[in-house]
Specification:
- The chain is an alpha/beta fold.
- The chain folds into 3 domains: 15-78, Winged helix-like DNA-binding domain superfamily/Winged helix DNA-binding domain (Arc Repressor Mutant, subunit A, Orthogonal Bundle), CATH 1.10.10; 86-188 and 305-328, Rossmann fold (3-Layer(aba) Sandwich), CATH 3.40.50; 189-302, Response regulator (Rossmann fold).
- It contains 12 helices and 14 strands.
- It has helices at residues 15-28, 41-48, 52-64, 97-110, 125-135, 154-161, 189-199, 201-204, 223-234, 261-273, 291-295, 305-318; strands at 68-71, 75-78, 86-92, 114-120, 141-144, 169-173, 183-186, 209-213, 238-242, 254-258, 282-287, 299-303, 323-325, 328-331.
- Strands 4-3-5-6-7-13 form a 6-stranded parallel β-sheet, sandwiched between helices.
- Helix 4 (97-110) packs parallel to helix 12 and helix 7 (189-199) runs parallel beside helix 9.
- 32% of the residues are buried.
- The mean pLDDT is 92.
């Protein structure tokens, strides 16, 4: 059965091409089987309120691409799906070393079975809107990181994401419970940070204060703060937030949770200039593992970025509508 929506009159792509693209995708996905009889040109024109000429051009395009054939006196029949590569649009919120890990893991797992185009929405829902509207219907899957500016209008970005057919959408790094029927590989920021700290409770006993350096305009998930607040409440720790790393004040008995690497450098320098000892008087926990943090003996909490890219690719290859929580870990080192 044909999809009831085959074109969008607001789209800049010619309607006949939209129709051909939509039917071709249904054939590729196996929704329209071999020998399926398409509606006649007259019937199609009537059912979908398009000109006969438009239908003729769409069918001609499908024949040219090898999707359908015509039998004199009988009509247009589906030939079968083409062994094309999967077309994927990957939209990150920003570029970073960690995004590169996800990207290359994603490509490696897909191997030669897919073609991936990469774009960046820069935390801006309106920029994402332009990307999606320009590419809707042109890809088999849309893989999107739904991280936006802290004050972003939720309805605005939800309306954008809902334009994508649920079975074609994969949310990466963050889940959105309201978007049912879509794939996701996500971090549970609130629970992950809480559980990581609980697992390091013995090391944290010597600190009475947990202080997160959370840049004011970083757009990091607020759930991170919620998880820290819950931990401090449960285990009787004082909790503070620093929005400017340059204003760090060292107080014995404080463990700092650092999100940005620039702030980590400022903190390490400040401790080295002081009489305090890292891992005894002052604690450090940094987000996201790097080789440099290993060399500096910095305790790290991090999701597995390579695993995230691999899992997302596997879901697409297997066409599985699942929501999978990505592994999260703490690497305990001398800084705590």
């Amino acid at each position: 059965m044909l999809n009831p929506v085959l074109y969008n009159s607001a789209d800049k792509m010619p309607i006949y091409k939209q129709i051909a693209l939509s039917i071709g995708k249904q054939i590729d996905k196996g929704l329209l089987k071999k020998n399926f009889l398409l509606p006649s040109i007259n019937l199609f024109s009537e059912q979908y309120a398009v000109a006969r000429d438009t239908v003729e051009r769409a069918y001609k395009e499908l024949k040219k691409q090898g999707y359908i054939t015509s039998v004199s006196g009988k009509g247009f029949y589906v030939v079968g799906k083409k062994e094309n590569k999967i077309k994927i649009l990957l939209v990150f919120n920003k570029l970073s070393s960690f995004k590169k890990i996800i990207y290359y893991s994603f490509l490696k797992t897909l191997a030669d079975k897919a073609v991936v185009d990469l774009q960046i929405h820069h935390y801006n829902p309106q920029h994402l809107k332009k990307i999606i509207e320009a590419n809707l219907g042109k890809y088999d899957h849309y893989v999107i990181m739904p991280h936006f500016e802290t004050n972003a209008d939720k309805k605005a970005f939800m309306d954008i994401l809902k334009k994508i057919p649920p079975e074609e959408l994969l949310l990466l790094d963050k889940s959105i419970p309201e978007l049912t029927g879509s794939m996701s590989v996500f971090q549970d920021f609130r629970t992950d940070i809480f559980d990581a700290l609980v697992s390091a409770l013995e090391l944290l006993e010597k600190y009475n204060t947990l202080s997160i350096i959370f840049p004011e305009y970083s757009n990091h998930p607020p759930e991170i703060i919620e998880g820290l607040q819950q931990f401090c409440k449960n285990y009787d720790k004082r909790f503070t937030i620093i929005t400017n790393g340059a204003k760090i004040k060292l107080v014995r008995g404080t463990a700092f949770i650092v999100i940005a690497d620039d702030d980590l450098a400022i903190l390490v320098k400040a401790i080295r200039k002081s009489s305090y000892q890292t891992g005894k008087d002052i604690g450090i926990i940094s987000f996201n593992e790097t080789e440099l943090k290993d060399l500096l003996d910095i305790t790290v909490i991090s999701t597995d970025f390579e695993k995230m890219g691999h899992t997302a690719a596997r879901l697409i290859l297997k066409n599985q509508i699942r929501q999978i929580k990505n592994p999260f870990k703490i690497i305990k080192r001398g800084s705590l």
